Amino acid sequence: MESLAQLELCQRLYKLHFQLLLLFQSYCKLIGQVHEVSSMPELLNMSRELSDLKKHLKEASAVIAADPLYSDGAWSEPTFTSTEAAIQSMLECLKNNELGKALRQIRECRSLWPNDIFGSSSDDEVQTLLNIYFRHQTLGQTGTYALVGSNQSLTEICTKLMELNMEIRDMIRRAQSYRVLTTFLPDSSVSGTSL
């Protein structure tokens, strides 16, 4: 009985995984369509700018994580009087390529204003800074968009999901065939009679 429950669980997991794969493929198609629309002259594409900024912010974040002075909080930062002043300071840091300083400031702002525009400590600092930067750059504009990430990574993820889906399907088939074989095997606890 337990093996039947496990088999049913595997089948449901396969169905769920397949739905995830379909959802991801739809997402990839949507991204492809957005790339096609990006050639329209009335749209402003900030994807490259934000992708470069993300890459540099991740590098700065890695440097900060490796330096014990940064992680121990030995750096001194000014305490901001308002969220607007903090945002302006961060934007200046991003503009002047002072990325480590911007990352340290976002940490301070999260402690001053938790769960505000700066997010919480569990949110990705780099993504939060990208959101603030994009929001400021597009203030009062329409038709501006940015896609951060690469098509190559989406293709790799999709391929891996499909491979995993095939493996799950094969395991379920083997488990089903095993179940069929065990139902037809004679029970060794039953003694046989001869004629």
From TrEMBL:
<dbReference type="InterPro" id="IPR039867">
    <property type="entry name" value="Furry/Tao3/Mor2"/>
</dbReference>
<dbReference type="InterPro" id="IPR045842">
    <property type="entry name" value="Fry_C"/>
</dbReference>
<dbReference type="Pfam" id="PF19421">
    <property type="entry name" value="Fry_C"/>
</dbReference>
<feature type="domain" description="Protein furry C-terminal">
    <location>
        <begin position="5"/>
        <end position="195"/>
    </location>
</feature>
<protein>
    <submittedName>
        <fullName>FRY microtubule binding protein</fullName>
    </submittedName>
</protein>
<dbReference type="GO" id="GO:0000902">
    <property type="term" value="P:cell morphogenesis"/>
</dbReference>
